[in-house]
Design goal:
The structure is a single chain. The protein is of the alpha/beta class. The chain folds into 2 domains: 22-120 and 231-365, D-Maltodextrin-Binding Protein, domain 2 (3-Layer(aba) Sandwich); 123-226, Periplasmic binding protein-like II (D-Maltodextrin-Binding Protein, domain 2). 34% of the residues lie in helices and 17% in strands. It has helices at residues 53-60, 63-66, 82-87, 98-106, 153-161, 180-183, 197-202, 223-226, 239-242, 245-267, 269-277, 285-299, 311-323, 339-350; strands at residues 22-30, 33-43, 69-74, 93-96, 111-115, 123-128, 143-146, 171-174, 190-193, 218-222, 234-238. Strands 1, 2, 3, 4, 5 and 11 form a 6-stranded mixed beta sheet that branches. α4 (98-106) crosses α13, α10 crosses α11 (269-277) and α11 crosses α12.
Length: 372
């Protein structure tokens, strides 16, 4: 079973072209001489949305181009496995959750995380305040919504941590990829990404009041705060590819430009929403604005510098993955390397880019019905 991604409903996106690391002649010229650039492909974990805004911003603002890179961004979809795309050499870089990479490595696939962009988990469990479930311990005996397909491990780990057997003490209910069952009170608790499904609740009307639901109507249990959050969107490559010194230099440039894109989206989040929406998104601008703001919260502040793996967070993710049999063998530290991200962060610091976002403060985003 592989860990699948399912954050928005969208049509399947077909990956268009096979991509290898090549050095091509770009159309831009300097003094009449064509500039030689590295042509690279980035495979996203899901369809176009502000969850990936930093990469789209790096492309739109010319950060990749100025680093000497021609980057193509391939959207993903429900039938696209980023790890398989990278393993098949149809992309040099991929984005996905760390447990998925660990699962592939456990099966003997040579993949390495080189940049852990999301510093914390965006997974939560929500209940209505009217349910009386205002503490996680009160989930006992309840209908507990989880995404299957390998997305349930944070939830099951939290249940165990709080003294419950996931197979006996709650009724695990397989969720679909909307919040309709929760809104219809068919489950007592529902899994929700803070940047997507949670917004879907706030975009819906409370039939008792005729007004949109607000945070006052909910209890939101964030798995990061419960101590079972697993690391999510990280940048990975093939292990044999990154052994090449030239590829390492290219990777540092890619990380530097990508991190700069994320810093830009932290400081200009509304502009980044427009950049992504212009690419075509399944859900409307209001929803994408919420998502951009929430994704920024998962990245900033970044105490080690954006993209630098926190060993403690890696260990927690790896331990949960092993405990719940996502992987058969304990994960080795070789699953990631931080030296390239550190070089990218150091280069950005010299440029005056804030790489930690220590003073970051999220915006206040008000949603409208349907996310418009």
């Amino acid at each position: 079973m592989r860990i699948r991604r399912r954050y928005v409903l969208a049509t399947v996106v077909v990956i268009a072209a096979a991509a290898g690391t090549t050095v091509g002649m770009a159309t831009s010229k300097n003094g009449g001489v064509a500039i030689s650039r590295n042509t690279l492909t980035l495979q996203l974990a899901w369809t176009t949305q502000t969850r990936f805004a930093g990469y789209y911003a790096a492309l739109a603002k010319g950060f990749y181009r100025r680093a000497g890179l021609d980057v193509e961004i391939n959207p993903g979809g429900p039938d696209v496995i980023p790890e398989q795309v990278v393993l098949g050499r149809r992309a040099e870089f991929g984005i996905d959750w760390l447990p998925s990479l660990l699962q592939q490595r456990d099966a003997g696939k040579d993949l390495v995380n080189i940049g852990q962009v999301f510093a914390r988990s965006g997974t939560s469990e929500v209940t209505f305040k009217s349910s009386g479930i205002d503490a996680f311990e009160k989930m006992r005996g309840k209908r507990f919504g989880v995404w299957k397909f390998g997305n349930e491990y944070e939830q099951e780990a939290a249940l165990v941590k709080y003294g419950m057997d996931p197979k006996k003490d709650v009724t695990l209910v397989k969720q679909d990829f909307t919040m309709v069952p929760f809104l219809n009170h068919e489950v007592d608790a529902s899994s929700a990404m803070t940047y997507n499904e949670l917004a879907q609740v706030f975009e819906a009307k409370n039939p008792k009041t005729g007004k949109l639901y607000t945070l006052k109507d909910l209890n939101v249990f964030k798995y990061e705060n419960l101590g079972t959050g697993m690391l999510q969107d990280g940048i990975f490559v093939k292990g044999d590819w990154i052994k090449d010194k030239a590829h390492q230099a290219t990777a540092v440039k890619f990380l530097q430009a990508s991190f700069k894109g994320w810093a830009y989206c932290r400081d200009h989040f509304k502009e980044c929403v427009n950049i992504v929406v212009a690419q075509g998104t399944a859900l409307p601008k209001g929803h994408q604005t919420w998502q951009m703001n929430e994704v920024n919260k998962l990245i900033w502040p970044s105490k080690l510098g954006i993209g630098v793996m926190d060993p403690t967070a890696f260990k927690r993710t790896a331990n949960i993955a092993h405990t719940f049999k996502v992987i058969k063998k304990p994960a080795a530290n070789a699953a990631y390397r931080s030296d390239l991200a550190r070089k990218a962060v150091a280069a950005l610091k010299k440029q005056g880019v804030d790489v930690t976002g220590k003073s970051f403060k999220p915006a206040v985003v008000k949603l409208k019905a349907g996310g418009k």
